[in-house]
Each structure stands twice: as C-alpha cells, then as structure tokens.
Amino acid sequence: MALPRRARSLLLLLLFGGLLFFFFVLSVVLGSVKIPPEELWETLFHQGGQVYQKVVWEIRLPRALAAAFGGAALATAGLLLQIFFRNPIVDPYVLGVSSGATLVVALLMLTGLVLGGGPVPPYILSAAALAGAAAVVGLIVAVANRVKNVVTLLVIGLMVGYLCSAGTSILIAFAEKEKLHGFVLWTLGSFSGFCWDETLVLGVGGAIFLGGAYFLCKPLNALLLGEDYAQSMGVKIKMLRVLIVLFSSGLAALVTAFAGPVAFIGLAGPHLARLALGTSDNRLLIPATMLVGGLIATACDLVARLAFSPVELPVSAVTAVFGAPLVISLLLRRGTSL
After folding, report:
1. Residue 333, burial from CB neighbour count under 10 angstroms (0-12, 13-18, 19+)
2. Cis omega (within 30 of 0) on the bond before 287?
3. Residues of 244-267 as b/e, b for ≥16 C-beta within 10 angstroms?
4. How far apart are alpha carbons 98 and 160 in whole angstroms?
5. CATH code (residue 159)
6. Mean pLDDT of the chain
7. Residue 329 lies in domain
8. What value does the mean pLDDT take over residues 314-333?
9. How far apart (Å, rounded) are the C-alpha atoms in residues 316 and 284?
10. How far is the C-alpha of 251 from the C-alpha of 76, rounded, in Å?
11. CB 224: neighbour CB atoms within 10 A?
12. Domain count of the chain?
C-alpha cells in the first residue's frame, strides 16, 4: 500500500538528514590522519589523544560544519531565485553577487592594497569579499524595489556581474604572476582553512536568512500561481520581491565571502529536492533543499579532499562534475517540452 504523500515526504526528509549526518561523520574521521570511529566520541569530549583533538577541533569539524551550512545556504538561495524568476536554470550568482565579491578580492590580492604590502590576512580577505558582495546586494535590492518586471531585474543583475567581471579581468591583466596563483585558487572555491570564528559567522548569518526564507513559504506558494493570484490572496508583491532578493543574495554573499565562489550547488540542490519529493509545496521543499544542499556540499568537499590526496581539488571542480550533467539534462528536457 502506497504511503500518503506527506508521510513519504517526511521519510525522505529523514533520509536526507541521515545521509547528511553520515557524510558529516565521514568528513570528520577520514583524511591523512584517520580517526577510528570508536575514538571520535571521546575526541569530541576532549578525552582522546592530543593529535586527534587538534585534527578534529581545529581543522575538520569547522570545515565540515562550514560545508554543511554553505551547501544549505546556496541551495536555498537557488530555490528562491528559481521561484522568483520562474526559471529552472537560475543559480544564486546570477545577480552578480559572486562577481562583486571577486572584484574586491582581486583589488586586494592583485594590487597589494593592504598595510605593509605583504600577503592578505584571511580575515581581511573574507571581510573584503563580504563587502563586495554586500554592495551588489544593496544595489540589486534597491533596483528590485523600483522595477516591476523580473526579467528586467535579471538583466540588470547580469550586467552588474559583467561589469564586475570586466574590472577583475583588467586587474588580472596588470597583475604580477606571483599574485595570480593565490587569486585563481580563491576563485575556484574551497571550504578548507575555516576557523571557528568564520564558521560561527556563516552559521549564525545563514540561520537568520534561512529562517527568513522558510517564513516566506506561504507567499512563495501563492507566487507559484502567478503574481495576480498572489496579490488577490493578500501578498504584498513588492515587499516579497525585495525579501526574496535580499535573502537569496545574502546567503550567496556569506558563502562567497568565506569559501569563494562555489558552483552548481544552488542549481542542482533545488532540482534534486523537487524531483525526490515530487511537490512544489515550499513548506516541505525548503527544508528538503537545505538538507540536499548540505549533503551535496559535504560529500563533494570530502571527495575533493580524498580523491587525489595529498593534493586537494577545488570543491567547485567536484560540484561541476556533479552539476554539469544535471544542467545539460535540464536544458534538454526544457527544450523538448517547448
């Protein structure tokens, strides 16, 4: 006998949560220093060996948490934008958030605009990326408050992204070769090197935006049936549009600031959640998208660390291998349905 749809959806949410927890534990115990599972519990309570404690508490645990939070943030941002633009192939960086962060980071890394002229400290780099992303977010929110057509907003976001990318390309053309290496590595995206302060900022900031996104479930469901219908149900369309842009851009900005641009999670996560649940009800779809995004990011980060150890792959390279076939299949499906 088939399960009711709601019970089936809840079981799938539990499955996604269980898989996320499984890969989270693998991320903590696997690596160049393998931690026996029986030692993990003691290590978490500071009762294990000093080496295990240092590896778990200073390196792997903040990284695993950052990957889970970052994946959930990017996937939810992608879902919000796909609903907003009614386009299944929109991702969180379509509004130029990533390009704005990249431009400011390029200014610091490629021109040496820091005190002393030495290497850029990680906290300054993260603050610069967040400032660049926030500037673009502020611009897009201001535009969203004025224009009525979502296509116009999309085009403006793309143009802002192109302008920022042009500025970055000019800086690259005049940069020294020694400085280009570090900048290129940053643009590939990685969850490595996270400290507890960065993880805390990502987790708390992400939780605020994710909570805000979940409280938009009902108006988002109404928006799926068209703006006229949503307006007839009492939804304030203008305010809803600003909140969607603010939450989605804010989530993308937080992740980009600390991990660099991470591709495809915001595109693939919502689709996998939607296909698995077989529903567009955002009361179920948003939690599922958070779990699927965290699962994808955690699993891909684990593969990036272990596939060619001791060489670590950029996480965007792994997510691209995962996401590109999905994008192609979506494009082909969309083309055949028109």
Report:
1. exposed
2. no
3. bbbbbbbbbbbbbbbbbbbbbbbb
4. 11
5. 1.10.3470.10
6. 83
7. 5-337
8. 76
9. 28
10. 8
11. 13
12. 1
